[in-house]
Each structure stands twice: as C-alpha cells, then as structure tokens.
Design goal:
Strand order of the largest sheet: 2-3-1-4
Strand content: 15-25%
Structural class: alpha+beta
Order of helices and strands: EHHEEHHHE
Largest sheet: 4 strands, antiparallel
Distance between the termini: 18 Å
Shape: globular
Number of strands: 4
Helix content: 25-40%
Radius of gyration: 14 Å
C-alpha cells in the first residue's frame, strides 16, 4: 500500500468553511465510486482553520500522475471540482492535482 499526504487552503471565510465541511459529509456517490475505481483504498481529510490535510492510501500499483488524470476524466469529477473550487484559494481552473499539494514526509517513528 502507498500513502500520499496533501494540503490545500480554503478561503478565509467561516461560512464557506462550514459549507465545505458540510458537503464533505455527503459527497456525491459518483465521486466516491471514481476514487475507488482508480485504486484509492482510503482517503481522509482533516481541517484546522482554513487548512486542509488529506491522507490518501492506494494500491501498490497506483501511479500518482496517471491515476489522478484517469480520475479527473471519470463521470462527475469535473463537476465536483468546479463545485468545490468556490471554497478553495486555488484557481477555479486548477485540477485537483494542482490544488492539492503533495507533502514530503520528514519524520516517521
């Protein structure tokens, strides 16, 4: 299994942050299906203020670039990205892979 960690910043607006949190409690079914289809086994998003932290666990065969491109082309994904972009500090035209910045692990126990 592979693990990827990413970060993204939301707009500094308490109401938008509340809405973003709420919509992630009811993610569209086709988004969940697409995530699983490309080899993502588990995904968690944490929030602190307007900073998001995501942990993605994948199959060993998962290729970060190729499989994220494949995910972006699946049904509903472009619509979801357009919908959530209004909450995010990143450009509305940025892909998910461009918005979510991969983090480098600097410590492991």
């Amino acid at each position: 299994m592979k693990r990827f960690c990413q970060t993204l910043h939301l707009k500094e607006d308490l109401e938008l942050i509340r809405q973003y949190t709420e919509i992630h409690r009811q993610i569209w079914p086709e988004i969940k299906a697409g995530i699983r289809e490309v080899g993502i086994l588990d995904m968690e998003i944490y929030i602190h203020g307007n900073t998001l932290f995501m942990i993605v666990e994948t199959t060993d065969a998962f290729d970060w670039v190729k499989d994220n491109q494949r995910l972006a082309a699946l049904p509903g994904q472009a619509e979801w990205e357009a919908y959530v972009s209004r909450f995010q500090q990143a450009s509305a035209s940025a892909t998910s892979a461009e918005k979510w910045q991969l983090m480098e692990r600097i410590f492991k126990l």
